Amino acid sequence: MNWISDWALPKISGLFKRDVPENLWHKCPACEKMIFRRDLEASLHVCPHCSHHMRISAVRRLECTLDPGFSRIELPKAPADPLRFRDQRRYTDRLKEAQVKSAMDDAVAVAHGTIEGQRAVVAAFEFAFMGGSMGPGVGEAIVTAAKLAVLQDAPLIIFTASGGARMQEGAVSLMQMPRTVIATRLVKEAGLPFIVVMCDPTTGGVTASFAMLGDIHIAEPGAMIGFAGARVIEQTVREKLPEGFQRAEYLLEHGILDMVVNRRDMRATLARVIGLLRVPLIESAAAALPPPDMAVETPAEDETAPAKA
């Protein structure tokens, strides 16, 4: 019977064996509970058990923010390796690897469309592309998004998720900080809303430039937001930082943020904020009314006594 158990049974069972995808289940990094992949995608990668917000791609961010039918914007191509940088590997090789990993040319995707019927231009960072670091390509994307918002008379919304400036590009990368600040200034000068949604993480040169210049600052729950890391700050000031320092809830409590919004409610919240910011000023409606001191003519009463019959 050995040949049956050793050879025949495995062959027969192999005929009925089903292939199970490796990514069918996902483990939450916060509560460590297993989540069915389909349920995770339906909840926009928010854990149904502990509400931990996992990172999502820039393209997925656009899909769950804009109404169906939005259009991606083709972005100008920046110089790939202006400094011909090399450390342990060539910088160009790192770029190619990041492009394959993220399916993007650089760390930002831009699209225009509507949010519950209201026009908007949205830029979203891709953290999977070299940590969402900001180089000339990202700078070009933000400038393009700002100019498009002004051209279309639409609000500009930027979802940030970045480790800061891209060190492989040196001063060329740092120059994107003032460039993006000037670009977002164009939006404000046009009288258009500029909304920043800070996702985990938003740090470094992105935080020190345009990310803190929005008209409204929103963050996802638990997002880490700051310039330098907590460990670096503690080593510098030689003090223990408060619990939850640099987390979205801490910053909301101390007045840095306007609101912390669950990802599943983000689209409705953005639509409501845009609607409030784009309401015509009360003064424009009041301009049609006469001044309060203007005399209003009333028809004179006929004082003639009625004739007697």
TrEMBL record:
<dbReference type="GO" id="GO:0005524">
    <property type="term" value="F:ATP binding"/>
</dbReference>
<dbReference type="InterPro" id="IPR029045">
    <property type="entry name" value="ClpP/crotonase-like_dom_sf"/>
</dbReference>
<keyword id="KW-0862">Zinc</keyword>
<feature type="zinc finger region" description="C4-type">
    <location>
        <begin position="28"/>
        <end position="50"/>
    </location>
</feature>
<keyword id="KW-0443">Lipid metabolism</keyword>
<feature type="binding site">
    <location>
        <position position="50"/>
    </location>
    <ligand>
        <name>Zn(2+)</name>
    </ligand>
</feature>
<keyword id="KW-0963">Cytoplasm</keyword>
<dbReference type="GO" id="GO:2001295">
    <property type="term" value="P:malonyl-CoA biosynthetic process"/>
</dbReference>
<dbReference type="GO" id="GO:0003989">
    <property type="term" value="F:acetyl-CoA carboxylase activity"/>
</dbReference>
<dbReference type="GO" id="GO:0016743">
    <property type="term" value="F:carboxyl- or carbamoyltransferase activity"/>
</dbReference>
<dbReference type="Pfam" id="PF01039">
    <property type="entry name" value="Carboxyl_trans"/>
</dbReference>
<comment type="function">
    <text>Component of the acetyl coenzyme A carboxylase (ACC) complex. Biotin carboxylase (BC) catalyzes the carboxylation of biotin on its carrier protein (BCCP) and then the CO(2) group is transferred by the transcarboxylase to acetyl-CoA to form malonyl-CoA.</text>
</comment>
<protein>
    <recommendedName>
        <fullName>Acetyl-coenzyme A carboxylase carboxyl transferase subunit beta</fullName>
        <ecNumber>2.1.3.15</ecNumber>
    </recommendedName>
</protein>
<dbReference type="GO" id="GO:0006633">
    <property type="term" value="P:fatty acid biosynthetic process"/>
</dbReference>
<keyword id="KW-0863">Zinc-finger</keyword>
<keyword id="KW-0808">Transferase</keyword>
<keyword id="KW-0444">Lipid biosynthesis</keyword>
<keyword id="KW-0276">Fatty acid metabolism</keyword>
<dbReference type="GO" id="GO:0008270">
    <property type="term" value="F:zinc ion binding"/>
</dbReference>
<comment type="pathway">
    <text>Lipid metabolism; malonyl-CoA biosynthesis; malonyl-CoA from acetyl-CoA: step 1/1.</text>
</comment>
<keyword id="KW-0067">ATP-binding</keyword>
<comment type="subunit">
    <text>Acetyl-CoA carboxylase is a heterohexamer composed of biotin carboxyl carrier protein (AccB), biotin carboxylase (AccC) and two subunits each of ACCase subunit alpha (AccA) and ACCase subunit beta (AccD).</text>
</comment>
<feature type="domain" description="CoA carboxyltransferase N-terminal">
    <location>
        <begin position="24"/>
        <end position="292"/>
    </location>
</feature>
<comment type="similarity">
    <text>Belongs to the AccD/PCCB family.</text>
</comment>
<keyword id="KW-0547">Nucleotide-binding</keyword>
<dbReference type="InterPro" id="IPR000438">
    <property type="entry name" value="Acetyl_CoA_COase_Trfase_b_su"/>
</dbReference>
<dbReference type="GO" id="GO:0009329">
    <property type="term" value="C:acetate CoA-transferase complex"/>
</dbReference>
<dbReference type="InterPro" id="IPR011762">
    <property type="entry name" value="COA_CT_N"/>
</dbReference>
<feature type="binding site">
    <location>
        <position position="47"/>
    </location>
    <ligand>
        <name>Zn(2+)</name>
    </ligand>
</feature>
<keyword id="KW-0275">Fatty acid biosynthesis</keyword>
<dbReference type="InterPro" id="IPR041010">
    <property type="entry name" value="Znf-ACC"/>
</dbReference>
<dbReference type="InterPro" id="IPR034733">
    <property type="entry name" value="AcCoA_carboxyl_beta"/>
</dbReference>
<feature type="binding site">
    <location>
        <position position="28"/>
    </location>
    <ligand>
        <name>Zn(2+)</name>
    </ligand>
</feature>
<feature type="binding site">
    <location>
        <position position="31"/>
    </location>
    <ligand>
        <name>Zn(2+)</name>
    </ligand>
</feature>
<dbReference type="Pfam" id="PF17848">
    <property type="entry name" value="Zn_ribbon_ACC"/>
</dbReference>
<keyword id="KW-0479">Metal-binding</keyword>
<keyword id="KW-0436">Ligase</keyword>
